[in-house]
Automatic annotation (TrEMBL), chain A:
<keyword id="KW-0472">Membrane</keyword>
<keyword id="KW-1133">Transmembrane helix</keyword>
<dbReference type="InterPro" id="IPR011866">
    <property type="entry name" value="CysW_permease"/>
</dbReference>
<dbReference type="InterPro" id="IPR000515">
    <property type="entry name" value="MetI-like"/>
</dbReference>
<feature type="transmembrane region" description="Helical">
    <location>
        <begin position="158"/>
        <end position="180"/>
    </location>
</feature>
<protein>
    <recommendedName>
        <fullName>Sulfate transport system permease protein CysW</fullName>
    </recommendedName>
</protein>
<dbReference type="GO" id="GO:0005886">
    <property type="term" value="C:plasma membrane"/>
</dbReference>
<keyword id="KW-1003">Cell membrane</keyword>
<dbReference type="InterPro" id="IPR035906">
    <property type="entry name" value="MetI-like_sf"/>
</dbReference>
Automatic annotation (TrEMBL), chain B:
<keyword id="KW-0067">ATP-binding</keyword>
<dbReference type="InterPro" id="IPR017871">
    <property type="entry name" value="ABC_transporter-like_CS"/>
</dbReference>
<keyword id="KW-0472">Membrane</keyword>
<keyword id="KW-0764">Sulfate transport</keyword>
<dbReference type="InterPro" id="IPR008995">
    <property type="entry name" value="Mo/tungstate-bd_C_term_dom"/>
</dbReference>
<keyword id="KW-0813">Transport</keyword>
<dbReference type="GO" id="GO:0015419">
    <property type="term" value="F:ABC-type sulfate transporter activity"/>
</dbReference>
<dbReference type="InterPro" id="IPR024765">
    <property type="entry name" value="TOBE-like"/>
</dbReference>
<comment type="function">
    <text>Involved in beta-(1--&gt;2)glucan export. Transmembrane domains (TMD) form a pore in the inner membrane and the ATP-binding domain (NBD) is responsible for energy generation.</text>
</comment>
Length: 303, 345
């Protein structure tokens, strides 16, 4: 209060100086000494440089080490194109499936109370806690030649392992939690009042879902899809187990990177890797934009 | 539309939210469900709306079984405590929602819908907000939009859950008057839930007082205030002095002091005496049923509120007219003009 009153009175230079000092002292209370600040910031920057920026730079430097023509040539190899196509196809399938599963699971968990709900939440998180290699092995055990359904599948001439269905299944399993995880807290926070209002106004279940629930979570859905897609395209472990590494047929981009690298084809390996790195960068930017939208949704809910 | 509720029971785990509730609501009534939180009033409202289901009991509208229908078929307008406006829709689309989701066979054309929404926005005097989003409105405006949205489907019954609960005192008073006149205008059977006795007594034609999942009393605002049926109602409505007394052989005692109050057919034993604060008449020491010393006095608009330590240990607050001069330290006698004694400790 006294400070505000003083503000209206004009100050002599010496008073102004004293006040500046006081302000500096006040700021000092809230910040560390200069030396500590510099040390901490340097450490953080160094860490980020070594572990994040440097690898990224190396990927692109290696990819373009023989010039842009070699880069483009590496990417237009039939094997590379096949891997890109396969990766896109698998991502499309698994993101599509997980979008539906995730929406349904989040809807059930956030809007209803039922027996075994906690168990379901734990199950959804399972793929996060299991090593991807194990996830892949599960499918080998189920659908492999010696697996539970192996004989039946062979009799009916259905190929799951070492083919697109197996890769899609393994990827779907590994990326299962993303959409559901993005939506459960959001839907939980929004509660069920708007849905109740819609139903009491005469809306059917589907109308309520498409006109009220879905518009309210659309940014959350996009956010989940984005993360799910990034992981689906980048998945290595689970896919490696089920793919069979058939060149030009069942190699996804991450698998191809490894193969090319092991064959000392550095330009080709890093060219494919650069595509994955770019995917990561685009994902990051899109994620930032989406988080801003989600934040806005938050703010408008609060007042 | 008349509503009849018979022997409604609803349990959440071992907690009985409704414990055998019977209620009849006449056509065109404006009824208040009044009670403290946890008394079951909101549960009753939600069951009538079809948003919750009872464990047992019956609900009928105009004699038809309402429990056979879902919330969607009941044509009940429900105004939620926190409004539950659709945050991604404009005010206009919020109000239009109930008309747009009707089955195609009965859905009105766009022009009719627009005209109807405009009428409703005029009715709640907010037509100028049609293009805003709910987050851009004040609490009172949201409340009125929620009401317009509920009225859009031409509900047979209007249910309001704590309609003024989230508003500040001034807006609340304005909206109370407005709701009463609106009800007069549209004359739809309406029930609102409140924990605020002033609100219930001022707005409703009839008040249902609830406690612990049971109905304590049903009556006009005047009846529940002037002749409370139970100790709970007396304590809950109006400001009452409550004293633990003992009844034996037709004599009421506070501690060991006989009060000289009449008891009609009250069983002997521990009882509770209720007196409204303004029903305590102040007299000279030695007169009246009670005697005590004034602790301190505060002046309050038309009355003065005095804290009086009764001889016998209890301290009570009374409201006396301003012309009666009271000072801290005065010894006074008190005579209840009206009182009620309820058996039980």
């Amino acid at each position: 209060m006294t400070l505000q009153i003083a503000d209206t009175v004009s100050l002599s230079p010496s008073q102004a100086k004293a006040r500046a000092h006081a302000a500096a002292a006040r700021d000092n209370l809230r910040t560390e000494p200069r030396a500590v600040r510099i040390a901490i910031i340097t450490l953080a920057v160094l860490f980020l440089t070594v572990f994040v920026v440097l690898p990224l730079v190396v990927v692109f430097a290696q990819a373009f080490s023989k010039g842009i023509l070699a880069y483009l040539a590496a990417l237009s190899e039939p094997e590379a194109l096949a891997a890109i196509r396969l990766t896109l196809l698998v991502a499309l399938i698994s993101v599509g499936l997980n979008l539906v599963f995730g929406l349904v699971a989040a809807w059930a968990i956030a809007k209803f109370d039922f027996r075994g709900k906690t168990f379901l939440i734990t199950l959804i998180d399972l793929p996060f806690s299991v090593s991807p290699v194990i996830s892949g092995l599960v499918f080998v055990l189920l659908f492999g030649a010696q697996g539970y359904f192996g004989g039946w599948l062979r009799e009916h001439d259905i190929q799951i392992l070492f083919a697109v269905p197996g890769i899609a299944l393994a990827t779907t399993f590994v990326t299962f939690p993303f959409v559901a995880r993005a939506l459960i807290p959001l839907m939980h926070e929004q509660g069920t009042q708007e849905e109740e209002a819609a139903i009491s106004l005469g809306a059917s279940g589907l109308q309520t879902f498409f006109r009220v629930t879905l518009p309210n979570i659309k940014w959350g859905v996009l956010y989940g899809v984005l993360l799910c897609n990034a992981r689906a395209m980048g998945e290595f472990g689970a896919v490696s187990v089920v793919s069979g590494h058939i060149r030009g047929e069942t190699n996804t981009m991450p698998l191809l990177v490894e193969i090319l690298y092991n064959e000392y084809q550095f330009v080709a390996a890093f060219a494919i890797a650069s595509l994955l790195a770019m995917l990561a960068l685009i994902t990051l930017i899109a994620k930032t934009v989406l988080e801003r939208h989600l934040g806005e949704g938050h703010a408008s809910r609060d007042h | 539309m008349t509503i009849e509720v018979r022997n409604l029971v609803k349990k959440f785990g071992s907690f009985a939210a409704l414990d055998g509730v019977d209620l009849k609501v006449d056509n065109g009534e404006l009824l208040a469900l009044l009670g403290p939180s946890g008394s079951g009033k909101t549960t009753l409202l939600r069951i009538i709306a079809g948003l919750d289901w009872p464990d047992s009991g019956e609900v009928s509208f105009n004699g038809e079984d309402a429990l056979a229908q879902g919330a969607r078929e009941r044509h009940v307008g429900f105004v939620f405590q926190h409004y539950a406006l659709f945050r991604h829709m404009t005010v206009f689309e919020n109000v239009a929602f109930g008309l747009r989701v009707q089955p195609r066979a009965v859905r009105r054309d766009e022009a009719t819908i627009r005209a109807r929404v405009k009428d409703l926005l005029d009715l709640v005097q907010l037509d100028w907000l049609a293009d805003r989003y709910p987050s851009q409105l004040s609490g009172g405006q949201r409340q009125r939009i929620a009401l317009a949205r509920a009225l859009a489907i031409e509900p047979r019954i209007l249910l309001l859950d704590e309609p003024f609960g989230a508003l500040d005192a001034k807006v609340r008073k304005e909206l109370r008057k407005w709701l009463r006149s609106l009800h007069h205008e549209i004359n739809v059977t309406s029930i609102f839930v409140t924990h605020d006795q002033e609100e219930a007594l001022e707005v409703a034609n009839r008040v249902v007082v609830m406690d612990k999942g049971r109905i304590e009393q049903i009556g006009s605002p005047n009846e529940v205030y002037e002749s409370p049926a139970t100790a709970f109602v007396h304590g809950f409505i109006g400001e009452s002095i409550e004293l633990p007394v003992h009844v034996a052989d037709g004599v009421v005692r506070l501690g060991s002091r006989p009060l000289g109050l009449a008891v009609d057919g009250l069983a002997s034993g521990a009882s509770r005496l209720f007196v409204r604060r303004h029903d305590m008449q102040v007299g000279p020491a030695g007169s009246g049923a009670f005697e005590g010393a004034v602790q301190h006095v505060r002046n309050f608009g038309p009355v003065q509120r005095a804290e009086v330590a009764l001889f016998g240990g209890e301290t009570i607050e009374i409201d006396a007219p301003r012309d009666k001069e009271l000072r801290a330290g005065d010894r006074i006698g008190l005579e209840p003009r009206r009182y009620r004694i309820f058996a039980g400790g």
